[in-house]
Amino acid sequence: MTANNDTPEGWSKPKPPPKEPKIEWVSIEKLLDDYTIAVLAEAVEKLNVQTYDDTGRRILATNDGTHESKSKAFALSHLAHRYFMLQNPGPDDYLFDERLEIEGSPLDLFGWPKAELPDLDSVNPHHSSTIKASPTATLATSWISNAQTIAKNYLSRHNAKALHPNMKETSEHVAAEMRKIKIYGPQKRPLEPGYIKRHALQGEFWKGRNGY
Prior knowledge:
The chain is mainly alpha-helical and 212 residues long.
């Protein structure tokens, strides 16, 4: 080896990894926070939903069967499972949310670049209905506001005692309180601490926590 970390004779310096243009990916999983499963199922079927192939390229989801993980049918089968869970809630549903926290969701790989996101507000998924499906953005805003109010009160009480709960403790407290007073999320289900942390407490809210 040469001195001063010079490149040895006959070797070439490594090149930086190639870059791709940055895009903001909007997944079906993320859209479940704001739109009904029926709307998203219709969009998967008819609005050129994209996914990733084995080399990381974005492609149109295929028309293959559910056995093919890059097919529209595969995405629809997962949406159908989520709808079944909503219609048939059970005491162990929280385990599914925990699994999503750890492993992620297959629906993370289906969606659109933000610049190509279709107008989901205009999607009507029902055969006989003339009423346009609308997003549950108002409901989402409502639960987030309630969650942040509960968190502010919790942090304020502890800050007054020179105690500073971390985000995990705070989100667990908020989840417990919201269950008590029956405040639910966009899918009308009790929210898990990890979901509350991601959607209501991270970012600017948590940065300002010492002011509460």
